[in-house]
Design a protein that fits this description.
- By secondary structure, this protein is mainly beta.
- It has 9 helices and 50 strands.
- The chain has a 10-stranded antiparallel beta sheet, with no helix packed on it. Strands 3, 4, 18, 19 and 20 form a 5-stranded antiparallel beta sheet that branches. It has a 5-stranded antiparallel beta sheet with strand order 9-10-11-12-13, with no helix packed on it.
- Strand 5 and strand 6 form a beta hairpin.
- About 3% of the residues have low confidence.
């Protein structure tokens, strides 16, 4: 039975391993032992290699007299001991000549590690930084097998048409020397040295039992190779409660995890056959302290000669007891880390979890268990919320899910439902006023999104921005709470080229790193004649700043994103314009000064941006900027200025090297909010549009300045009683298209009687019981799994496309047991699956 045991050495900074291998094969088995911190190695490449029997013995089973290894590492990674980018290992035979060379190098093309083994090596020639390996196969002439070239920060392996080049931070040289202690190789000692000192000693012993026919091989490994990120010999203080060691050894107070893997036909098993862990202790010099406490006469006669200093017989005797004292002290000092979830021995994690009522999953990696315990208080604090359920279900199943509170579908005669449904609408003005607005047809095609299901579940489409692109195409951007398949639901920036150019909306930031906490919003579009520019605000840089990327030709051909601003105060709601000289201007609102101001930044070449400057300095809030180049070629900036009990629209013009004094363009009575201005030049006149709540609900208003001199009277651009906001005008040929966000469509989802035989009723039946269902029904008083429409019912829709129904049901069973302790007593969970045929099934009801 193979076994692996680990224990701290009493002398400190070292861990002793005992590995036992039992088998009937006479040849030396191929086994590998790896080391990691924080968690047990998960594979035969996940950690620092402590032992690899294939490196120590020849194919004939004889120990290599010497192995010389050059390792080239990348530091500042999570890899134990640094990430090996390249390695040159030379195996020296009994005659003192190199007989075998193994080259290991990272291959960027395949994103994997390439291993080249060169047998029958005839000679190795090193000139400067280049090492050339020659081989002679049988009676054939000697040939060059390749050249390993080392320069400052780079290693290149060249062999025929194959060239591999990798970068590195540090070089490590190691030497393994074997000493045969018993004839026939039954007992061998392997010493691994680096920088002139032993970092690992392995004692190998093999014995054969003729009664059982089994070979028993025992290996004792003294591991003291420090794997710090600093070069060996540099000061590495480690935890402050332990003494630092600049010379050697493992880090005191650190728990190291070991795993042993077996290989068959050169391929390692996916899981280890044995694991162990131990915490390295420190050396406090307890023996020397005991020695100093002796009477001076004893010390004088113990080390009378200078050559005996530090090595007297009495001193060496007391060091035996001093090591025990150091071990006891290290163990006591280690008690301080028992409450540290990150560093504590993984064996103590269940006890820490039990203190706060968390049940860890011992089948998961130790890092995941640690993260779960750290996150448990936050999870407990959000019990009963949708984010809590979503994270728990995804955590245990590995699948995404949607959560729906069916209380919102219960019909109530005394409480009309309020809809939060927001869509992008469009109205077109061909010269006789804006026509009847409606949901933008390209975004919500009737064939895929019938009128009754156009609401995005628990979401919205808002703050549109439009621009005319190549060939007169209309590019529409907006932010929405849509969740692409396999990605968390959050606010993102979407886009679509209208009039059939793009069949469906596209997540234009879908190629960027994703996180549920990211918020991408407030898009602003600008076409410079060759590229479409997209500006938006995002917190993906830890603070809310402006970002930019460009598109060429279509939405798929896009540049890498660039962080345009970086400030502790949030930068939001960008607006963009391009003046007559080709300079691109970007405006936004920010609280860098304290009150909200409008700031600006510009670029002449699209690459180098000027320093941000503050444009406004109002007493309260200057927000929601908009910019336009008027018929005279003057850059105009509009914004909404908060006056406390009202908000007005102001403008300024750029004249010379700066902006002029603000002018009030739209005034307001007390209680009236004029917000989100947008401007466009149409038929030689400046059109200013904004949303205002005068008259009750927010509606879109407009004002026109003909000839660039006199402003006309304000008028309702969209004269309907609805909540319309965020106007985004754009010239579409000879017409003026106006995009805006509206809640008008939400009225269709409020309670009403529906004839199920009518087209609207049939559409309602298709969405019944689904996550997108926005109808209202009478209360279902049953407690069965099919009883959805009740105030206490919460539906969990597992999203696992392509996963067989049987596996989804098994996942629900696991998730139900895992979520049960976090379910409030007044809540009933209904687990719902979508079958392969598109139908839905209520699997179980908990509570």
């Amino acid at each position: 039975m193979p076994e692996l045991d680990a224990r701290a050495d009493a002398r400190g900074e070292r861990i002793d391993l005992d590995l036992t291998l039992v088998g009937t094969a006479e040849s030396v088995p191929h086994a590998r032992v790896l080391r990691r911190r924080s968690s047990t190695p998960k594979s035969a490449t996940d950690g620092l290699v402590v032992l690899d029997l294939a490196d120590l013995f020849t194919q004939a089973g004889d120990p290599w007299p010497e192995v010389r290894r050059q390792r080239y590492l990348v530091l500042n990674t999570l890899a134990e001991g640094g990430m090996v980018q390249a390695e040159l290992a030379a195996y020296v035979g009994a005659g003192g000549a190199v007989e075998q060379v193994v080259i290991t190098a990272y291959d960027r093309t395949s994103d994997g590690v390439r291993v080249v083994r060169i047998d029958q090596v005839s000679r190795v020639v090193t000139t400067g930084g280049a090492t050339e390996i020659f081989q002679r196969i049988g009676a054939a002439p000697e040939t060059s097998a390749g050249t390993f070239t080392v320069s400052s920060g780079q290693v290149v392996w060249s062999a025929g048409a194959v060239t591999l080049a990798v970068d590195y931070d540090r070089r490590e040289d190691q030497e393994i020397v074997s000493t045969v202690l018993e004839e026939g190789g039954a007992r061998v000692r392997f010493s691994t040295r680096a920088d002139g000192e032993d970092i690992r000693v392995t004692d190998y012993r093999a014995s054969f039992n003729p009664d059982t026919g089994e070979w028993t091989r025992t290996l004792r490994i003294a591991d003291e190779e420090r794997s710090s990120k600093a070069p060996r010999g540099a000061l590495d203080p480690g935890p402050t409660r332990f003494p630092s060691s600049a010379a050697r050894g493992l880090e005191p107070g650190t728990t190291y995890y070991y795993a042993a893997f077996a290989a068959t036909s050169g391929a390692f098993a996916a899981k280890p056959f044995a694991t162990a862990a131990a915490t390295a202790t420190a050396s406090y010099g307890g023996g020397d302290l005991l020695y100093r406490l002796l009477p001076e006469a004893h010390r004088f006669f113990d080390e009378r000669e200078a050559a005996q200093a530090g090595a007297g017989q009495l001193r060496r005797f007391l060091r035996i007891f001093g090591d025990g004292v150091d071990l006891a002290r290290s163990t006591a000092e280690g008690l301080l880390s028992l409450h540290d979830v990150i560093t504590v021995d993984a064996a103590h994690l269940p006890r820490l979890a039990a203190w706060i009522g968390w049940e860890p999953d011992r089948t998961l990696a130790e890092e995941v268990q640690r993260t779960d315990i750290l996150a448990a208080p936050e999870i407990f604090g959000t019990v009963g919320t949708i984010p809590n359920l979503t994270s728990l279900v995804s955590r245990v199943t590995g699948y995404d899910c949607d959560v729906k509170e069916f209380v919102n579908n219960v019909f109530m005669t005394n409480a009309p439902e309020a809809s939060r449904h927001v869509q992008v609408y469009q109205a077109v003005n061909t010269g006789a006023g804006f026509g009847a607005p409606g949901p933008q047809a390209n975004l919500y095609p009737p064939s895929n999104e019938p009128a009754i299901t156009q609401a995005r579940p628990d979401a919205f489409d808002g703050e549109p921005s439009a621009a005319i692109g190549p060939g007169g195409s209309v590019w529409l951007f907006w932010h929405a709470h849509r969740a692409p398949a396999g990605r968390p639901g959050r606010r993102r920036v979407w886009a679509q080229r209208l009039k059939g150019l793009d069949p469906a909306p596209i997540d234009v930031l879908g190629d960027l790193p994703d996180d549920p906490g990211f918020v991408d919003e407030g898009p602003a579009a600008l076409f410079d004649g060759s590229r479409m520019w997209l500006f938006w605000s995002s917190n993906r840089g830890k603070t809310t700043d402006l970002w930019v990327r460009t598109f060429t030709g279509d939405l798929a051909t896009r540049s890498a994103p660039v962080r345009l601003t970086s400030h502790a105060a949030p930068d939001a709601r960008p607006a963009a314009a391009r003046d007559t000289s080709g300079r691109i201007w970007v405006f936004w609102e920010s609280r860098r000064r304290g009150p909200t101001d409008i700031w600006a930044i510009s670029t002449a070449d699209g690459v180098t941006w000027d320093k941000p400057v503050r444009v406004t300095s109002g007493d309260a809030r200057d927000q929601m900027p908009a910019a336009v180049i008027d018929p005279a070629g003057v850059l105009r900036l509009f914004w909404s200025a908060d006056r406390g009990d009202r908000s007005v629209i102001l403008q300024t013009k750029r004249t010379g090297a700066g902006f002029g004094a603000p002018e009030e363009v739209v005034s307001a009575a007390p209680g009236v909010r004029n917000e989100a201005p947008a401007a466009v030049v149409w038929n030689g006149s400046v059109w200013l549009l904004w949303c205002s709540n005068q008259g009750g609900r927010f509606r879109i208003w407009a004002r026109v300045q003909a000839g660039g001199t006199v402003w006309g009277t304000s008028f309702l651009a969209i004269g309907r009683l609805s909540n319309d906001r965020d106007p985004a005008p754009v010239l579409d040929g000879a017409a003026l298209s106006l995009f805006f966000s509206s809640r008008e469509g939400g009225e269709r989802f409020q309670s009403r009687t529906v004839d199920t035989a009518s087209p609207a009723g049939k559409l309602a039946l298709k969405t019944m019981h689904r996550h997108a269902d926005r109808m209202h029904y009478t209360y279902d008083t049953r407690r069965a799994k099919e009883s959805f429409y009740a105030r206490d019912a919460v539906g969990i829709y597992l999203r696992a496309p392509g996963v067989p129904d049987v596996e989804q049901r098994q996942a629900v069973t696991r998730a139900g047991a895992f979520v049960a302790p976090f379910r409030p007593l007044q809540m009933r969970l209904v687990w719902i699956l979508e079958r392969a045929d598109g139908s839905i099934e209520a699997v179980q009801s908990d509570g």
